[in-house]
TrEMBL record:
<feature type="binding site">
    <location>
        <position position="132"/>
    </location>
    <ligand>
        <name>glyoxylate</name>
    </ligand>
</feature>
<comment type="similarity">
    <text>Belongs to the FMN-dependent alpha-hydroxy acid dehydrogenase family.</text>
</comment>
<dbReference type="InterPro" id="IPR000262">
    <property type="entry name" value="FMN-dep_DH"/>
</dbReference>
<dbReference type="InterPro" id="IPR012133">
    <property type="entry name" value="Alpha-hydoxy_acid_DH_FMN"/>
</dbReference>
<feature type="binding site">
    <location>
        <position position="158"/>
    </location>
    <ligand>
        <name>FMN</name>
    </ligand>
</feature>
<dbReference type="InterPro" id="IPR037396">
    <property type="entry name" value="FMN_HAD"/>
</dbReference>
<feature type="binding site">
    <location>
        <position position="22"/>
    </location>
    <ligand>
        <name>glyoxylate</name>
    </ligand>
</feature>
<keyword id="KW-0285">Flavoprotein</keyword>
<feature type="binding site">
    <location>
        <position position="104"/>
    </location>
    <ligand>
        <name>FMN</name>
    </ligand>
</feature>
<feature type="binding site">
    <location>
        <begin position="300"/>
        <end position="301"/>
    </location>
    <ligand>
        <name>FMN</name>
    </ligand>
</feature>
<dbReference type="GO" id="GO:0010181">
    <property type="term" value="F:FMN binding"/>
</dbReference>
<feature type="binding site">
    <location>
        <begin position="277"/>
        <end position="281"/>
    </location>
    <ligand>
        <name>FMN</name>
    </ligand>
</feature>
<keyword id="KW-0288">FMN</keyword>
<feature type="binding site">
    <location>
        <begin position="75"/>
        <end position="77"/>
    </location>
    <ligand>
        <name>FMN</name>
    </ligand>
</feature>
<feature type="binding site">
    <location>
        <position position="249"/>
    </location>
    <ligand>
        <name>glyoxylate</name>
    </ligand>
</feature>
<protein>
    <submittedName>
        <fullName>Alpha-hydroxy-acid oxidizing enzyme</fullName>
    </submittedName>
</protein>
<feature type="active site" description="Proton acceptor">
    <location>
        <position position="246"/>
    </location>
</feature>
């Protein structure tokens, strides 16, 4: 495979149509979904010349975890729909690539088993846990405890989902439940028995403060698009912002993640890491996002395509393709390291009339 697009095509052919559409789809008219990728194509890079070095250092420290490149894996649900090895394959592949995996609370494998699979490949594998706050605080606390015991070193709280997005592809297929034998495993062994994941509009900043007080792990807020929310998050002491429109699966009328990034990066002003996901498919997308202020970027669907195409090996291919493309793009931009990626490198496609 020579590009993520090719792996996507193989995955499309291998997956049952209702599972492919669950993974691929977005909300409503899928405007935000498409715009996430299109927005990168509206931007262009103005490379610098004569870097004077053949060495390029692309490792980055993300809240204490060393990632070998500024690309991490965003949380996605139900990996065993893509491949029978599911999240175990993903965990092994991401550990082998020495980057951060954000495990979904809606995984079809427990966080403990994912951690064990990752640590068998690399004892220092970096694993974070994604959380939807549950109105039953006993459940939230138990999940946090299990993630902590599994060795997760940060919690990523998804805050863009007061209600579940409308996915018309799923409705068309009547896809409402996981097939027999698959479950959101983290939600099974709970007081009172298995629970569904709840999305609640009742949650507020107070609930986040409560979580803050209950754990010493760094907390990243995922799904921030408004600069004012980014400012509030930093002022309230949260440890990172993940700029994301949930892969276009929640509110359809939102901007592409990359379009929302510059104002948020400006407001945050380097006080905490600003992460981004949505539409990252090429090494040049990574370069653009870092130049516009991201510390690192996440990928969601490409991992599912790799998994469906070829299990652990497919996920490894996805990460190594992006690593190679990113390094190549950095070299072509005249960069020697991440600090060379500054916003003057990015321009909007079209003539530069009057800009100089
Ligand atoms: C099938 C699927 C499942 C997802 N599940 C979750 C989830 O459980 N928790 C979450 O916070 N985000 C979830 N997301 C959103 C991703 O974390 C991420 O924001 C998005 O996929 C990034 O966009 P990309 O797919 O274009 O890379 C999911 C996305 C997809 C496509
Ligand atoms: C009610 C099940 C929740 C799974 C959440 C997965 C998700 O975030 C998605 O976008 O799909």
């Amino acid at each position: 495979m020579i590009s993520l697009a090719e792996l996507h095509e193989v995955a499309r052919q291998r997956l049952a149509p209702e599972h492919y559409d669950y993974f691929a789809g977005g909300a409503a008219d899928e405007i935000a979904l498409e715009d996430n990728e299109q927005a990168f194509r509206r931007l262009a890079l103005l490379p610098r010349i004569l870097p004077g070095s053949a060495r390029r250092d692309v490792a980055v420290n993300l809240l204490g975890a060393w990632a070998s490149m500024p690309v991490f894996v965003s949380p996605t649900a139900f990996h065993r729909l893509a491949h029978s090895d599911g999240e175990l394959a993903t965990a092994r592949a991401v550990a082998a690539a020495r980057t951060v995996l954000i495990a979904s609370m809606a995984a079809t494998t427990t966080i403990g088993d994912m951690a064990a699979a990752a640590r068998a490949v690399d004892p220092d594998a970096a694993l974070w846990f994604q959380l939807y706050l549950q109105s039953d605080t006993e459940v939230t606390d138990l999940l946090v405890r299990r993630a902590t015991d599994a060795g997760c070193t940060a919690l990523v709280v998804t805050v863009d989902s007061p209600v579940f997005g409308h996915h018309e592809r799923d409705r068309r297929h009547g896809f409402t439940d996981l097939p027999e034998g698959l479950a959101a495993e983290n939600m099974r062994d709970l007081p009172g028995g298995p629970r569904n994941i709840e999305m609640s509009p009742v949650l507020s900043w107070d609930d986040l403060e409560r979580l803050r007080a209950s754990t010493s792990l760094p907390l990243v807020l995922k799904g921030v698009l408004h600069p004012e929310d980014a400012r509030l998050a930093v002022e309230r002491g949260f440890d990172g912002i993940l700029v994301s429109n949930h892969g276009g699966r929640q509110l359809d009328a939102v901007p592409a993640s990359i379009d929302a990034l510059p104002r948020i990066a400006e407001v945050v002003g380097g006080r905490v890491p600003v992460l981004l996901d949505g539409g990252v498919r090429r090494g040049t997308d990574v370069v653009i996002a870092l130049a516009l202020g991201a510390t690192a970027v996440g990928i969601g669907r490409p991992v599912l395509w790799g998994l469906a195409a070829d299990g652990e090996s497919g996920v490894r291919q996805v990460l190594e393709l992006l690593r190679g493309e990113f390094d190549h793009a950095l070299a072509l931009c005249g960069g020697r390291g991440l600090a060379d990626l500054t916003k003057d490198l990015v321009t909007v496609r079209g003539p530069e009339v009057g800009k100089w």
